[in-house]
Specification:
It is a single chain. This protein is α+β, with helices and mostly antiparallel strands. Strands 8-9-10-1-11-19-12 form a 7-stranded mixed sheet, with helices on one face. 30% of the residues lie in helices and 18% in strands. It is built from 17 helices and 19 strands. The longest helix is centred in the last third of the chain and has 18 residues. Helix 9 packs antiparallel against helix 11, helix 14 runs antiparallel to helix 15 and helix 15 runs antiparallel to helix 16. A hairpin with a 5-residue loop joins strand 4 and strand 5.
């Protein structure tokens, strides 16, 4: 979804005062890591929370059967000691290690995995959407204390990938605090996990503290240098976060703009987080109503865009796309669309709008990247006789227009992040006709051939068959030109010199950019 608006301008004294008054001090314990974050943690319930900040937090408190590692990221066994997949791709049998304990000493067994899966589906929020149509209630079964089976409604190639979002909760703790909402109220600000950290101070909207568990069942990869405590402080102003990282009062900050990153990276051992991310940024076009329903006009637009001008929005830090997928997931090695005014004019001549047309570009109020995108579009398309009217609206108002192609805008920018690093995460949501009118497909794109290929891609675990299906789907999508495919956006974290291995452990999947467990602290 759309990025949170980055706020600006507070004085340096605020940083010192806020840190001091909340007791943030590296002297508190041997290896305290401090973080300045724009984002409040509105919940830490694994069945409810589903974004970057909450995903990161859940990884500190809970374990999963599989976990993302590396760049490019891959799901690797975590609680899964071994696993088997049936020949038809519908039954996953997973064996757990012996003697894993929750933080209260209760055993983490197959029954706890079943409880966590069933609770996620019952609560039906957050990551539950990843399992919709894939795993039904009652289809997760404990064979014995160490063996659990998942029987899928249909084969699903990236099932191991979405298991990275099944956080295993302690049934004993949740049942004792179940209340009338399946423990949702309790788990909003309590944890019931087995992960490498437990909760320390928890001051909603201000400060969140993670205390390392010395006896964590997997041990610590940096035994003598891992954080013994992490303090995540809310800093709503970008200038506050920048000053805090520059002065060494914090070790890592998030949601930083390109200008701030360029200004501080390289100073006093401060580094910009590696990139690119897996967040795709493009401009959706209404494929069902209005002028952009004409595919020749859409192709003319795609050829007319100044892509270098688009890249400049992020200071040249983004990576231009060759198609609908980020570079690490696509098979498209060369771009189909780059600025070529002769091709743009030729496509325009084939359309119903050879003499020009006015299009409305609608973006979300306050998002500077999107506003600047509109200006680049306006300038680019003017060169082929297309006028662009730029309109700012709220996100809620924009989403309301998407449902009907008659009201959905001709041009609309959108960020698509990744909960799991697989083509299905992007293509199914953005180009499946069943989701036309959803915020992920505001242009109402529909192509039966693409639908069939996307279904094939997700319904098999055969890597070669999946690659072939997605390669064909990408080619069809590019030919239809439903979007202006722009770039993957740059990473927004800045890291201080005390964290010595951030680049080595960085993983660009949502919830994995802040892997405190793997940090090595100077």
């Amino acid at each position: 979804m759309h990025k949170v608006v980055r706020l600006v301008l507070v004085v340096a004294a605020v940083v010192a005062l806020s840190l001091g008054s909340l007791g943030v001090s590296k002297a508190q314990t041997e290896r305290v890591v401090t973080m300045g974050s724009l984002v409040e943690l509105y919940t830490i319930d694994p069945a409810v929370g589903f974004d970057q900040a909450i995903g990161s937090t859940l990884k500190q408190f809970y374990d999963t059967l599989f976990r993302y590692e590396g760049n490019p990221p891959k799901p690797v066994p975590w609680l899964a000691e071994k696993y088997e997949i049936s020949a038809d791709g519908t039954v996953y049998t997973i064996t757990l290690p012996e003697n894993v304990k929750f933080h209260d000493g209760s055993p983490l067994n197959a029954q706890a995995v079943v409880y966590s899966a069933e609770r996620l589906l019952r609560v039906n929020q957050g990551a539950a959407g990843l399992f919709l149509g894939i795993l039904a209630p009652g289809k997760t079964v404990a064979v014995d204390d160490r063996t659990v089976t998942f029987t899928l409604d249909q084969p699903y190639g990236p099932f191991l990938d979405i298991l990275t979002w099944l956080f295993i909760v302690n049934p004993t703790v949740v049942e004792a605090n179940k209340g009338s909402d399946d423990g949702v109220t309790y788990l909003t600000d309590h944890e019931a996990g087995s992960g490498p950290f437990t909760m320390g101070r928890w001051q909603a909207g201000e400060l969140y503290e993670f205390v390392a568990t010395p006896t964590y069942w997997r041990g610590w990869p940096n035994n003598d240098t891992h954080p013994t405590k992490v303090i995540r402080q809310v800093m709503r102003e970008a200038s506050t976060r920048r000053l805090a990282i520059e002065s060494g009062q914090v070790d890592i900050v998030d949601w930083m703009g390109v200008d701030d990153i360029k200004a501080v990276a390289g100073k006093n051992g401060i580094i910009a987080a590696p990139g690119p991310t897996l967040t795709v940024y493009d401009v959706k076009m209404n494929t069902k109503n209005g002028p952009t329903a004409d595919p020749a006009l859409r192709r003319a637009i795609a050829y007319a865009v100044d892509y270098d001008g688009m890249a400049a929005i992020w200071g040249g830090q983004g990576t231009l796309l060759n198609g609908p997928l980020p570079p690490s997931l696509t098979t498209q090695t060369t771009p189909m669309y780059r600025m070529d005014l002769e091709k743009a004019k030729a496509e325009l001549a084939k359309s119903q709008y050879a003499n020009g047309v006015e299009l409305e570009y609608v973006y979300v109020t306050g998002l500077e990247d999107e506003r600047r995108t509109g200006l680049v579009l306006q300038d680019s398309l003017s060169k082929i006789g297309i006028t662009v009217k730029i309109t700012a609206v709220t996100w809620a108002d924009a989403v309301a227009t998407f449902q009907d192609p008659k009201t959905s805008p001709s041009l609309f920018p959108l960020y698509s992040g990744t909960a799991f690093a697989d083509p299905d995460n992007y293509l199914w949501a953005s180009f499946n006709s069943a989701l036309a009118g959803n915020w992920t497909n505001p242009g109402h794109y529909s192509n039966p051939q693409v639908d069939a290929l996307l279904t094939t891609g997700r319904a098999t675990a055969d890597a070669a068959k999946r690659k072939d299906a997605y390669t064909q789907a990408e080619a069809l999508i590019l030919a239809d030109s439903p979007n202006v495919f722009i770039a993957t956006t740059p990473e927004d974290h800045i890291v201080g010199p005390r964290i010595t291995n951030y680049a080595a452990v960085y993983c660009p999947v949502m919830g994995s950019m802040e892997d405190f467990y793997k940090f090595a602290v100077q």
